[in-house]
Amino acid sequence: MSRSARDVAAGVGVVFAGVFDQLSAWRAPIEHLIATSPEVRPAELDGTVADLVLPRLVEPDPLLVGAGFIADGEIVRGRDVHFAWWLGPLDANPVLGSTTEPTRLDLTTRGYTEYLRDFRALEWYAIPASTRHAHVTGPYVDHLCTCDYILTLTMPVHAGGAGDAVGDARMVGVVGADVSVRGLERELLAELLDVPEPLALVNEAGRVVVSTEPTLQVGQLAGAWQEAEACPGTPFRVLVAPTTGRAASGSN
After folding, report:
1. CA angle, 117 as apex, 87 and 99 as ends, to 5°?
2. Which domains are delineated in the chain?
3. With 90 as the cut, is the pLDDT of residue 173 above it?
4. What is the reported pLDDT for 166?
5. Distance of CA 153 to CAs 17, 31, 65, 67, Å?
6. What letter would DSSP give residue 247?
């Protein structure tokens, strides 16, 4: 029996719920470390984060291509901003070449990092800071690490281990993970192709994440496709191709 757009939407929700659950599991020990010291040593923070994220980055066919914790600087001794972030093994990456082991993100070796001086204004940080909830940014081309389309999932980290609770808890950073669009497509493609009609998974702005219609590319606006189903717990929707004529090609 073939699947429906609703089945696909539910499957997308399950995939992202798994990543959000992982972020929540990582957040707890990071908040505990912060709660035990008003000023965390960089090496101690890095060791804690590395122990948490590295196992997920070396899984067979990993969904996550990068993960870690980005601190706002107030809690890390001697740092205005601190990236405890690792990349998984990369295949023919334009920046790093091919790598077989996870690598630490080193901003000193990257060009075009000036925008990170005001990282608190970037979507992946600003939205969790204002809503106190997890957020998905993208799809966008990650020029800093992978040079490919990714989705960045981030969740606020608070001093005192307050999690998402409102009140006096102070946000001190975000725990996050990068999901490659290629990896997500690999995860979802069988379900997408099991639906008779062409489908497109789009973000809130209607930009394509994954599609089974060859004329629709990642990042493109889906145009006049019919909205079908919201994906639970995510900002995404599954659209179905119009029943007559071909889908509007949209514009960038």
Report:
1. 15
2. 5-184 (3.30.450.20), 192-240 (no CATH)
3. yes
4. 45
5. 11, 18, 12, 9
6. P
